[in-house]
Write a structure and sequence with these properties.
With 317 residues, the protein is mostly helical. Helices cover 78% and strands 5% of the residues.
């Protein structure tokens, strides 16, 4: 007796059917049906295993391909958006720095313009020159012996300062309008850049890739392995990236160890050469001392012999 698991064609209840029988009835609803007709719907022959397996494998491969294509598309968009975001952020910082400089210059000119507008045009330019001239007159009167020269010098400096302030006022008036216009243009560019930045951020699904990998190196690697079909999904691509980072770090550590070992060997070689030099110098010094000692002993022996001979000579002669 061979039992086949199937569902009731009427109420869909689970059944165990004896295939040796011609007919069967449902235990739940009592529906009767022909076993051969229904079993054929669920029974798979051995000849069907290979094509069904191939179809399942093809379906799995197609699913993996679609998943990889979707991951590649999202990672590519995130990578491009990240680059565009970095570019727009840099542009925004540059524009804000320019705006800051322009606003400082505008504020400085506006402070001078308050001074120029304190009195009518002809009088505002004379305030400082006249003050300088009066100061020199006072100094000249106090220094009576050179009063004429000091007052003349004060007049010259006052005239020079008048022309300098006149040139400054004209230049500031000429610069003020273009500076304000440039500052307004920069503000418009900043607003446009911020809008583009927000649009780029909204366009890409940055949450698809974990924040840990939101950097150019990681995104380029993830994109490349997906593009080369070395990974079928983001998880596999991230695993490959982590393996690559691990290998790179290990190689860096090995290179550092090799460098330290070479450095230690070089230091040991230098120390050995210094010890050898010291030993050779010690041997040379000992040789010199030995030679000097021998010479001294020989000299003493000769002197002693000379004294003996002299004593003998004095005794006989």
């Amino acid at each position: 007796m061979k039992l086949v698991s199937m569902n009731c064609p009427h109420c869909n209840g689970p059944l165990k059917v004896n295939t040796s029988l011609a007919r069967a009835s449902c235990n739940y609803c009592g529906f009767q049906f022909v076993i051969d007709d229904e079993v054929k719907k669920v029974k798979i022959s051995e000849e069907d295993y290979e094509p069904i397996g191939k179809a399942v494998n093809d379906a799995r491969m197609e699913s993996d391909r679609k998943e990889a294509a979707l991951a590649l598309e999202k990672v590519a968009k995130i990578r491009d958006s990240y680059r565009k975001t970095s570019e727009l952020q840099g542009r925004g910082q540059f524009l804000r720095a320019r705006l800051y400089d322009d606003e400082r210059r505008i504020a400085s000119i506006e402070n001078w313009m308050k001074f120029w507008n304190f009195l009518p045009y002809s009088l505002s330019l004379f305030i400082i020159p006249v003050g300088i001239f009066i100061l020199f007159i006072i100094i000249g009167i106090a220094s009576w012996f050179a009063a004429g020269g000091i007052i003349a010098a004060g007049l010259v400096i006052a005239v020079i300062s008048f022309f300098v302030f006149s040139w400054m006022r004209n230049k500031q008036n000429n610069d003020y309008g273009p500076l304000v216009q440039e500052a307004n243009s920069i503000k418009a560019d900043i607003a446009q850049t911020d809008a583009q930045l927000q649009a780029v951020r909204n366009d890409a699904d940055f949450s698809f890739v974990p924040p840990k990998y939101h950097n150019p190196a990681a995104l380029d690697f993830l994109y490349q392995v997906l593009y080369d079909k070395r990974a079928n999904n983001l998880s596999q691509a991230i695993n490959l990236y982590e393996e690559n980072v691990y290998r790179t770090n290990m190689q860096r550590m090995q290179d550092e160890q090799i460098r330290l070992q070479k450095q230690q060997l070089e230091e040991m070689r230098q120390q050995q050469e210094e010890r050898d030099d010291s030993r050779e110098k010690g041997v040379d010094a000992a040789s010199v001392i030995s030679t000097v000692g021998k010479v001294a002993v020989t000299g003493m022996a000769l002197k002693a012999g000379h004294d003996i001979l002299k004593g003998i000579k004095d005794s006989f002669f």
